[in-house]
Protein backbone atom coordinates (compact mmCIF):
# COMPACT_ATOMS: atom_id res chain seq x y z
CA UNK A 1 0.00 0.00 0.00
CA UNK A 2 1.57 3.23 -1.13
CA UNK A 3 0.79 6.75 -0.20
CA UNK A 4 1.49 9.82 -2.25
CA UNK A 5 2.76 12.70 -0.19
CA UNK A 6 0.71 15.83 -0.63
CA UNK A 7 2.79 18.73 -1.90
CA UNK A 8 3.03 21.64 0.50
CA UNK A 9 2.38 24.99 -1.14
CA UNK A 10 5.20 27.43 -0.63
CA UNK A 11 5.04 31.21 -0.46
CA UNK A 12 6.21 31.33 -4.07
CA UNK A 13 3.27 29.11 -5.12
CA UNK A 14 0.75 31.36 -3.38
CA UNK A 15 2.24 34.49 -4.92
CA UNK A 16 2.32 32.81 -8.34
CA UNK A 17 -1.33 31.73 -8.09
CA UNK A 18 -2.35 35.19 -6.92
CA UNK A 19 -0.59 36.87 -9.83
CA UNK A 20 -2.11 34.46 -12.35
CA UNK A 21 -5.57 35.04 -10.86
CA UNK A 22 -5.07 38.80 -11.04
CA UNK A 23 -3.94 38.61 -14.67
CA UNK A 24 -6.93 36.39 -15.54
CA UNK A 25 -9.37 38.82 -13.92
CA UNK A 26 -7.70 41.74 -15.70
CA UNK A 27 -8.18 39.95 -19.04
CA UNK A 28 -11.78 38.94 -18.34
CA UNK A 29 -13.09 42.32 -17.11
CA UNK A 30 -12.91 44.09 -20.51
CA UNK A 31 -14.94 41.28 -22.09
CA UNK A 32 -17.50 41.46 -19.27
CA UNK A 33 -17.74 45.22 -19.66
CA UNK A 34 -18.27 45.03 -23.43
CA UNK A 35 -20.82 42.22 -23.04
CA UNK A 36 -22.66 44.03 -20.25
CA UNK A 37 -22.85 47.38 -22.05
CA UNK A 38 -24.07 45.70 -25.23
CA UNK A 39 -27.09 44.31 -23.34
CA UNK A 40 -27.76 47.52 -21.44
CA UNK A 41 -30.84 49.50 -22.41
CA UNK A 42 -29.56 52.56 -24.37
CA UNK A 43 -31.97 54.74 -22.40
CA UNK A 44 -30.45 53.55 -19.11
CA UNK A 45 -26.82 53.77 -20.24
CA UNK A 46 -24.68 56.23 -18.31
CA UNK A 47 -21.36 57.23 -19.98
CA UNK A 48 -18.12 56.51 -18.10
CA UNK A 49 -19.88 54.12 -15.71
CA UNK A 50 -18.45 50.64 -15.23
CA UNK A 51 -21.04 47.96 -15.98
CA UNK A 52 -20.32 44.50 -14.62
CA UNK A 53 -23.98 43.57 -15.06
CA UNK A 54 -26.59 45.55 -17.02
CA UNK A 55 -28.83 47.79 -14.94
CA UNK A 56 -31.59 47.18 -17.44
CA UNK A 57 -31.41 44.34 -19.98
CA UNK A 58 -32.33 45.07 -23.57
CA UNK A 59 -31.76 43.60 -27.05
CA UNK A 60 -32.50 46.88 -28.78
CA UNK A 61 -28.82 47.47 -29.64
CA UNK A 62 -28.55 44.11 -31.38
CA UNK A 63 -31.86 44.59 -33.18
CA UNK A 64 -30.71 47.99 -34.40
CA UNK A 65 -27.29 46.95 -35.63
CA UNK A 66 -28.62 43.80 -37.35
CA UNK A 67 -31.11 45.98 -39.25
CA UNK A 68 -28.52 48.41 -40.67
CA UNK A 69 -27.27 48.04 -44.22
CA UNK A 70 -23.64 48.69 -43.28
CA UNK A 71 -23.39 45.86 -40.75
CA UNK A 72 -25.21 43.37 -42.97
CA UNK A 73 -22.97 44.24 -45.93
CA UNK A 74 -19.87 43.87 -43.76
CA UNK A 75 -21.14 40.55 -42.42
CA UNK A 76 -21.76 39.22 -45.93
CA UNK A 77 -18.29 40.32 -47.05
CA UNK A 78 -16.60 38.73 -44.05
CA UNK A 79 -18.52 35.46 -44.39
CA UNK A 80 -17.67 35.28 -48.10
CA UNK A 81 -13.97 35.94 -47.52
CA UNK A 82 -13.84 33.49 -44.59
CA UNK A 83 -15.66 30.59 -46.26
CA UNK A 84 -14.17 30.88 -49.76
CA UNK A 85 -10.74 31.85 -48.50
CA UNK A 86 -10.56 28.97 -46.00
CA UNK A 87 -11.63 26.38 -48.57
CA UNK A 88 -9.04 27.61 -51.07
CA UNK A 89 -6.37 27.82 -48.35
CA UNK A 90 -6.92 24.19 -47.37
CA UNK A 91 -6.99 23.03 -50.99
CA UNK A 92 -3.83 24.88 -52.05
CA UNK A 93 -1.87 24.25 -48.84
CA UNK A 94 -2.43 20.49 -48.67
CA UNK A 95 -1.97 19.83 -52.39
CA UNK A 96 1.25 21.86 -52.53
CA UNK A 97 2.59 20.38 -49.29
CA UNK A 98 1.82 16.86 -50.54
CA UNK A 99 3.71 17.56 -53.76
CA UNK A 100 6.69 18.85 -51.77
CA UNK A 101 6.87 15.56 -49.85
CA UNK A 102 7.77 13.72 -53.08
CA UNK A 103 11.56 13.65 -53.42
CA UNK A 104 11.22 12.54 -57.04
CA UNK A 105 9.41 15.74 -58.05
CA UNK A 106 11.53 17.90 -60.40
CA UNK A 107 12.52 21.24 -58.88
CA UNK A 108 11.48 20.21 -55.37
CA UNK A 109 14.61 21.66 -53.77
CA UNK A 110 14.20 24.99 -55.53
CA UNK A 111 10.55 25.27 -54.51
CA UNK A 112 11.41 24.45 -50.90
CA UNK A 113 14.09 27.13 -50.98
CA UNK A 114 11.56 29.68 -52.21
CA UNK A 115 9.13 28.66 -49.45
CA UNK A 116 11.77 29.03 -46.74
CA UNK A 117 12.93 32.35 -48.26
CA UNK A 118 9.43 33.82 -47.98
CA UNK A 119 9.29 32.61 -44.39
CA UNK A 120 12.25 34.86 -43.56
CA UNK A 121 11.85 37.77 -45.99
CA UNK A 122 8.77 39.68 -47.13
CA UNK A 123 8.32 41.92 -50.16
CA UNK A 124 6.65 44.63 -48.08
CA UNK A 125 3.44 46.62 -48.27
CA UNK A 126 4.17 48.72 -51.38
CA UNK A 127 5.08 45.81 -53.74
CA UNK A 128 2.08 43.85 -52.45
CA UNK A 129 -0.23 46.80 -53.11
CA UNK A 130 1.19 47.30 -56.60
CA UNK A 131 0.73 43.60 -57.34
CA UNK A 132 -2.90 43.68 -56.24
CA UNK A 133 -3.42 46.84 -58.29
CA UNK A 134 -1.89 45.34 -61.46
CA UNK A 135 -4.08 42.26 -61.03
CA UNK A 136 -7.14 44.53 -61.01
CA UNK A 137 -8.23 43.36 -57.56
CA UNK A 138 -8.54 46.73 -55.84
CA UNK A 139 -11.98 47.21 -54.29
CA UNK A 140 -12.62 43.49 -54.75
CA UNK A 141 -13.05 40.91 -52.00
CA UNK A 142 -10.77 38.62 -54.01
CA UNK A 143 -7.90 40.93 -53.03
CA UNK A 144 -8.25 39.43 -49.53
CA UNK A 145 -8.14 35.85 -50.86
CA UNK A 146 -5.87 35.39 -53.90
CA UNK A 147 -2.65 36.96 -52.51
CA UNK A 148 -2.86 34.78 -49.38
CA UNK A 149 -3.85 31.36 -50.69
CA UNK A 150 -1.17 29.83 -48.47
CA UNK A 151 1.88 30.78 -46.44
CA UNK A 152 5.31 29.33 -45.78
CA UNK A 153 4.68 28.37 -42.15
CA UNK A 154 1.53 26.40 -43.00
CA UNK A 155 3.28 24.62 -45.88
CA UNK A 156 6.21 23.56 -43.71
CA UNK A 157 4.00 22.27 -40.87
CA UNK A 158 1.62 20.43 -43.22
CA UNK A 159 4.55 18.96 -45.15
CA UNK A 160 6.06 17.68 -41.90
CA UNK A 161 2.74 16.12 -40.95
CA UNK A 162 2.26 14.42 -44.32
CA UNK A 163 5.79 13.01 -44.20
CA UNK A 164 4.94 11.39 -40.87
CA UNK A 165 2.21 9.26 -42.50
CA UNK A 166 3.28 5.66 -43.26
CA UNK A 167 4.50 5.43 -46.85
CA UNK A 168 3.34 1.81 -46.96
CA UNK A 169 -0.27 3.01 -47.15
CA UNK A 170 0.44 4.92 -50.35
CA UNK A 171 2.28 1.94 -51.80
CA UNK A 172 -0.65 -0.36 -51.05
CA UNK A 173 -3.02 2.12 -52.68
CA UNK A 174 -0.96 2.20 -55.86
CA UNK A 175 -0.82 -1.61 -55.89
CA UNK A 176 -4.63 -1.60 -55.76
CA UNK A 177 -4.69 0.61 -58.85
CA UNK A 178 -5.00 4.12 -57.39
CA UNK A 179 -3.39 7.00 -59.22
CA UNK A 180 -1.45 9.69 -57.36
CA UNK A 181 -4.60 11.81 -57.15
CA UNK A 182 -6.57 8.78 -55.95
CA UNK A 183 -4.03 8.07 -53.23
CA UNK A 184 -4.16 11.70 -52.14
CA UNK A 185 -7.97 11.83 -52.02
CA UNK A 186 -8.69 8.35 -50.65
CA UNK A 187 -5.78 7.78 -48.28
CA UNK A 188 -3.90 10.97 -47.44
CA UNK A 189 -6.89 13.28 -46.94
CA UNK A 190 -8.83 10.93 -44.57
CA UNK A 191 -5.69 10.44 -42.47
CA UNK A 192 -5.12 14.20 -42.38
CA UNK A 193 -8.46 15.21 -40.87
CA UNK A 194 -6.96 16.37 -37.52
CA UNK A 195 -4.50 18.61 -39.37
CA UNK A 196 -7.23 19.81 -41.75
CA UNK A 197 -9.43 20.73 -38.77
CA UNK A 198 -6.57 22.58 -37.11
CA UNK A 199 -5.62 24.60 -40.20
CA UNK A 200 -9.27 25.24 -41.03
CA UNK A 201 -9.46 27.02 -37.69
CA UNK A 202 -6.18 28.86 -38.35
CA UNK A 203 -7.26 30.09 -41.78
CA UNK A 204 -10.83 30.87 -40.76
CA UNK A 205 -9.73 33.00 -37.80
CA UNK A 206 -7.20 34.79 -40.00
CA UNK A 207 -9.79 35.63 -42.67
CA UNK A 208 -12.46 36.57 -40.12
CA UNK A 209 -10.06 39.01 -38.47
CA UNK A 210 -8.85 40.49 -41.77
CA UNK A 211 -8.32 44.16 -41.14
CA UNK A 212 -5.15 45.71 -42.56
CA UNK A 213 -5.44 44.21 -46.06
CA UNK A 214 -9.09 45.17 -46.22
CA UNK A 215 -8.20 48.67 -45.11
CA UNK A 216 -5.61 49.28 -47.85
CA UNK A 217 -7.19 47.28 -50.70
CA UNK A 218 -10.88 48.18 -50.28
CA UNK A 219 -12.06 51.78 -50.22
CA UNK A 220 -15.72 51.07 -51.04
CA UNK A 221 -17.54 51.15 -47.69
CA UNK A 222 -20.15 48.70 -49.01
CA UNK A 223 -17.43 46.04 -49.29
CA UNK A 224 -15.82 46.64 -45.90
CA UNK A 225 -15.23 43.64 -43.67
CA UNK A 226 -16.54 43.49 -40.12
CA UNK A 227 -13.21 44.42 -38.56
CA UNK A 228 -12.89 47.60 -40.66
CA UNK A 229 -16.47 48.58 -39.89
CA UNK A 230 -16.05 47.97 -36.15
CA UNK A 231 -12.81 49.97 -36.11
CA UNK A 232 -14.48 52.84 -37.96
CA UNK A 233 -17.41 52.70 -35.58
CA UNK A 234 -15.48 52.41 -32.31
CA UNK A 235 -12.19 54.24 -32.92
CA UNK A 236 -12.69 56.94 -35.53
CA UNK A 237 -13.80 60.18 -33.92
CA UNK A 238 -15.88 61.23 -36.92
CA UNK A 239 -17.90 58.02 -36.86
CA UNK A 240 -20.65 58.03 -34.25
CA UNK A 241 -22.78 55.17 -35.40
CA UNK A 242 -23.33 52.31 -37.77
CA UNK A 243 -25.72 54.38 -39.78
CA UNK A 244 -22.92 56.77 -40.79
CA UNK A 245 -20.39 54.05 -41.56
CA UNK A 246 -21.64 53.32 -45.06
CA UNK A 247 -25.18 52.33 -44.20
CA UNK A 248 -26.31 53.20 -47.68
CA UNK A 249 -29.17 55.54 -46.92
CA UNK A 250 -30.06 54.58 -43.37
CA UNK A 251 -31.47 57.75 -41.76
CA UNK A 252 -31.98 56.44 -38.25
CA UNK A 253 -31.06 58.25 -35.07
CA UNK A 254 -27.37 58.01 -34.17
CA UNK A 255 -26.97 55.03 -31.80
CA UNK A 256 -25.33 55.22 -28.41
CA UNK A 257 -22.31 53.42 -26.95
CA UNK A 258 -24.34 50.23 -26.55
CA UNK A 259 -24.45 49.91 -30.34
CA UNK A 260 -20.67 49.97 -30.54
CA UNK A 261 -20.29 47.29 -27.89
CA UNK A 262 -22.92 45.16 -29.58
CA UNK A 263 -20.98 45.35 -32.84
CA UNK A 264 -17.83 44.15 -31.03
CA UNK A 265 -19.71 41.20 -29.51
CA UNK A 266 -21.20 40.23 -32.86
CA UNK A 267 -17.80 40.36 -34.55
CA UNK A 268 -16.30 38.03 -31.91
CA UNK A 269 -19.22 35.63 -31.42
CA UNK A 270 -18.79 33.30 -34.45
CA UNK A 271 -15.16 32.42 -33.67
CA UNK A 272 -15.92 31.99 -29.96
CA UNK A 273 -18.76 29.62 -30.81
CA UNK A 274 -16.82 27.55 -33.35
CA UNK A 275 -13.56 27.16 -31.45
CA UNK A 276 -14.82 24.75 -28.71
CA UNK A 277 -15.94 22.23 -31.35
CA UNK A 278 -12.54 22.24 -33.07
CA UNK A 279 -10.37 22.51 -29.97
CA UNK A 280 -9.47 18.82 -29.69
CA UNK A 281 -8.65 18.60 -33.42
CA UNK A 282 -6.77 21.88 -33.13
CA UNK A 283 -4.39 20.61 -30.42
CA UNK A 284 -3.92 17.19 -32.01
CA UNK A 285 -3.37 18.59 -35.50
CA UNK A 286 -0.77 21.10 -34.39
CA UNK A 287 1.20 18.48 -32.46
CA UNK A 288 1.12 16.02 -35.35
CA UNK A 289 2.26 18.69 -37.77
CA UNK A 290 5.01 20.10 -35.60
CA UNK A 291 6.66 16.99 -34.16
CA UNK A 292 8.07 14.16 -36.17
CA UNK A 293 9.99 11.16 -34.96
From TrEMBL:
GO terms for cellular component: plasma membrane. The keyword Acyltransferase does not apply. Residues 75-277 form the ABC transmembrane type-1 domain. It is a multi-pass membrane protein. InterPro entries: MetI-like, MetI-like_sf. GO terms for biological process: transmembrane transport. Keywords: Cell membrane, Membrane, Transmembrane, Transmembrane helix, Transport. The keyword Transcription regulation does not apply. This is Carbohydrate ABC transporter permease.
Amino acid sequence: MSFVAKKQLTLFDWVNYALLALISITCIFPFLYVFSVSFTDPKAYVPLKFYLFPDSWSLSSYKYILSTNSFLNALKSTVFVTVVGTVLNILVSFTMAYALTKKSMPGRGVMLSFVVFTLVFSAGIVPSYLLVKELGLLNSLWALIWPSLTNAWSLIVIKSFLESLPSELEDSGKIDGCSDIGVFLRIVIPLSMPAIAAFTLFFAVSHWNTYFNALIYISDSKKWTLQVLVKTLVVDSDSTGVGQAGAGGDDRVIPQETIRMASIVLSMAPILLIYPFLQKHFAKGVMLGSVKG
